[in-house]
Fold:
Amino acid sequence: MIRRVLQAAGFHVVDAATGREALDRLALVRPTVVVLDVKLPDLDGFEVCRRMKANAATSSIPVLMFSAVLVEDADKIKGLEHADAYLAEPVPPPVLTATVRALARMAQAEAERSELLASQRMERAASALVDVGRRLMTTWDRIERSRIIVSALVDVYQARRGALLTLDASRTELRCAAAAGEDEVTALVGKTLLVDEALSGRAVAERRPRWTADILAEPDLKLPRWIHTMFRTGCRAWISVPLVVNDDVLGAVSLGDTTGRVFRKDEIQLLEAFAAQAALALRNARLWNQLAKSGERLEALSRRLLEVQEAEQRRLARELHDEMGAAISAVKMELQALGRRPELAPAARDLDRTVTAVDGLLQRVRQVSLDLRPSLLDDYGLEPALRWYVDRQSQRSRADIRIASDVGELRLPTGVETACYRVAQAAITNALRHAAANRITVELRLAGDDLKLTVRDDGAGFDVAAARARARRGESLGLLAMEERAGLAGGTLEIESVAGHGTELRASFPARPPRPATPR
Structure:
């Protein structure tokens, strides 16, 4: 009878004899209104209606329930928990058609409203995506990026809760990296879930969105007890979308809202687009952190190698000075003693020449010892060592080399003193050896918490960019070595040079904490 009345009113009617058949047909067609008898051969109308409303694809279709048996107020109240209208038979044909038309108008109005809201959400989401992209560029910290992503999602979807979960190396456990929304949701951070006991785990395992209108009513989810405790307050509608980059699953983003909320198709598609950007941002943050850790390990190794090199040079310098120097001095004294013996008078001239040669060897050993590591640097500090080196190079080269310093006997961190001395030493050596400089000025100044070193020369100058290019090819490593020395001591180094107009090197080092001016 209902079929004939609706067809006579101009409606196209599709029949289903059972509840399961109705649900199967709803997967293929989208009717304007569903008219549903409470009494069906298999599933009752209440259950069919509940399943429809729990499914995002059919939740917005108006449902008119009717019954010739369950006509009491309690029956109507139960039906209206999910249905949009409830009629008791016999139903006058005009009432039936008017009710269906009213539900159709309501569906049309809801569709138009949903379309408008979807458009507004898309605009808001597009703006949020741009804002998220801008905010993500301010940090490479993975946890901070996770917070930015979750906060944006909760805002865009106007959800009560949001969480971002990362998959562990074993790919069996998810850990909440960030959460946003209601105050108690922060308790999720740090919590772990097995992949097979969470909605987000299902999304990760199946690599597709998973959602539910009531997470506690899902029979196939083995939720831990703390989930039941946390979600019993009414925020039980959840959706989870996997975070996937190049077929690699990183985790999932999840949104929670009031029990019964159904996430529409356009919302799910938008969340997938958001998740794709989030996954890329997290993958890049992970790669950046791995690169940073590799850089830190390489820097630590380089620093350790320099420390070992300096320690070895210090050992060799002392060995040359104390042991070899003493041995050569003993040989010299023995030769001088032989020269004073009367019976060796005929060989006196030869002995004198030998003593002179040995004396030259002794001086050379002392020079090599000082070049390896001047004891002044260890015993008295940077300025005395640099003044000694400048005087020595002036005497050797006959160039005009001057030093101006306000550091005095102030002791600086050992690594800083060594790095600054080596950079100045290399700059002076390069100016004399490669630039044929006649005048070199060395300035050493304290500026707040920094030590400033400047070395200027009037030599031939050079093309700095070309020198850096050669260093990258491994052809000339002097400039690279100075930059690395400065960097490993926490400093910076800049060089300006023009062919034919000399070179200026500027280096800055952290000068704190100072130490008492006592010999070490």
In short: The mean pLDDT is 83.
